[in-house]
UniProtKB/TrEMBL annotation:
Gene3D superfamilies: MoaB/Mog-like domain, MoeA, C-terminal, domain IV, Molybdopterin biosynthesis moea protein, domain 2, Molybdopterin biosynthesis moea protein, domain 3. The lineage of its organism: Bacteria, Bacillati, Actinomycetota, Actinomycetes, Streptosporangiales. Its cofactor is Mg(2+). Keywords: Magnesium, Metal-binding, Molybdenum, Molybdenum cofactor biosynthesis, Transferase. Its EC number is 2.10.1.1. Belongs to the MoeA family. Catalyzes the insertion of molybdate into adenylated molybdopterin with the concomitant release of AMP. Coiled coil: none annotated. CDD domains: MoeA. Residues 181-319 form the MoaB/Mog domain. It catalyses: adenylyl-molybdopterin + molybdate = Mo-molybdopterin + AMP + H(+). InterPro entries: MoaB/Mog-like_dom_sf, MoaB/Mog_dom, MoeA-like, MoeA_C_domain_IV_sf, MoeA_linker/N, MoeA_linker/N_sf. This is Molybdopterin molybdenumtransferase.
């Protein structure tokens, strides 16, 4: 493919894995903000998570039963419930307290006897000889105070939020979701009902916002942009405002209406990727505008656009959020695997035991396979049938 504006040849026809790395490296992480835990959900840690207290913060009973000192039988001196502290002084050998799971073990108690194995008659307790330390979660046995529990770049998922609360944090320092403005080009597109002759339904306006959200971005708006005449695309790019990323769909190819490459040339954009050696999705592109905004061009064909979003947008948003390049698990493939010489082939797959099975319905304009897929397999050029392939997990 030729392209207007003469991007350097080393960014053209970039190998698929290299394209991912280039997109990730092009992103400078956004500034960090302190947010309450609920608002930090789904964002990315901008600094390490350190526990403020030891975990657990006190010797904790792991069972409902009796805290006992030394071998039995024992005399029960009282009760200690979760949330309270025993104030009756250290237990001496032969003494016990009734204790709840989660309660603070009194000093002197060296194990907890679960209620199921204990026999109580009044304040007399008997039971099997306890294992020293049995059923006690010792102060600091999970982590000492000040331990680093998660590095910067960790997503603030449900477990991390719970962990942060456990550690005594009310807020987290996180990087916000990168804002993404979506510009959908194509005069042939209609937005509702069945399309008439020569017209087709816009498949990308309805699908890209949730895709952006799933990749960690903030979809700001979807604008429909006229192909021609005039400079509607340039105006839309100018007007895209605060967005860190502008995604343009369609207009990536070399037809007379494909204004995007001309626009990048006119704006003296810095090319990062100009076409990727993959199928579909070959014409995708990524460039940095002089004001620092990143502009991503996705091919108009819907499955090609999806593939391209997972190739360039996912690493780009990860980089802006301060995350690492998304990891790609590997599995062998079953089913019919079309290959394209010299190009990575992106194919929809479903989980099939210890392998992934290739689905049909993956023409560049057809989303049927992708709609049913658990993942996209990235089959590299020169692939051997037995080799595991990298997978982009969709669900
Ligand atoms: N001479 C060449 N022509 C084309 C090449 C090429 O290398 N040389 N590459 C082909 C490939 S591969 C693709 S992919 C497309 C990319 O085209 P554009 O990104 O410029 O997109 P359009 O031309 O506007 O549209 C392509 C196709 O997709 C349909 N479309 C567009 N937007 C949407 C949408 N939002 N929802 C559903 N369908 C959409 C559009 O109607 C076209 O059928 O270029 C090839 N051509
Ligand atoms: O590469 Mo196009 O993106 O096949 O349809």
């Amino acid at each position: 493919m030729t392209s207007v504006g003469g991007p350097p040849s080393d960014v053209r026809g970039v190998p698929w894995q290299r394209a991912r790395h280039l997109a990730h490296a092009a992103a400078r992480p956004l500034g960090a903000v302190d947010l309450p835990l609920d608002l930090a959900a789904g964002l990315t840690l901008a600094r390490e998570l350190v526990t403020r207290t030891a975990l657990p913060a006190f010797d904790t009973s792991a069972m409902d039963g009796f805290g006992v000192a030394g071998p039995g039988p024992w005399r029960i001196r009282g009760t200690v419930r979760a949330g309270t502290v025993w104030t009756g002084g250290p237990l001496r050998p032969g003494e016990a307290v009734a204790i709840s799971t989660g309660a603070c073990v009194p000093p002197g108690a060296d194990s907890v006897l679960p209620v199921e194995v204990a026999e109580r008659a009044g304040d007399l307790l008997t039971g099997p000889d306890p294992r020293p330390g049995g059923h006690i979660r010792r102060l600091g046995e999970d982590a000492a105070a000040g331990t680093v529990l998660a590095p910067p770049g960790t997503p603030a998922g449900p477990a991390l939020l719970g962990l942060a609360a456990t550690c005594g944090h009310d807020t987290l320092r996180v990087r916000p979701r990168p804002g993404v403005r979506l510009l959908v080009t194509g005069d042939e597109l209609v937005r509702a009902g069945e399309p008439g002759p020569g017209r087709i339904r816009d498949a990308l306006g309805p699908s890209l916002p949730s895709l952006v959200t799933g990749l960690g971005g903030e979809p700001l708006s979807v604008h429909e942009v006229e192909d021609a005449p005039g400079n509607a695309l340039a105006e839309a790019v100018e007007g895209a405002g605060e967005a860190q990323v502008i995604v343009v769909t369609g207009s990536t190819s070399v037809g007379t209406t494909d204004a995007l490459r001309r626009l990048l040339h006119d704006h003296e954009a810095r090319w990062i990727v100009d076409t990727v050696a993959c199928r579909p999705g070959h014409p995708q592109l990524l460039a940095e505008l002089p004001d620092g905004r990143l502009l991503l061009g996705l091919p108009g064909n819907p499955y090609a656009a999806l593939v391209a979003a997972h190739t360039l947008l996912a690493p780009l948003l990860a980089g802006l959020a301060g995350r690492g390049l998304p990891a790609l698990p590997m599995l062998p493939l079953t089913g019919e695997v079309p290959v394209t010489p010299g190009r990575t082939r992106l194919l929809p797959v479903v989980w099939a035991g210890a392998a992934a099975r290739v689905l049909g319905g993956h023409g560049a304009a057809f989303l049927n396979g992708a709609a049913l897929a658990d993942a996209l397999a990235a089959v590299p050029p020169g692939w051997n049938r037995e080799d595991p392939v990298p997978l982009i997990v969709l669900r």
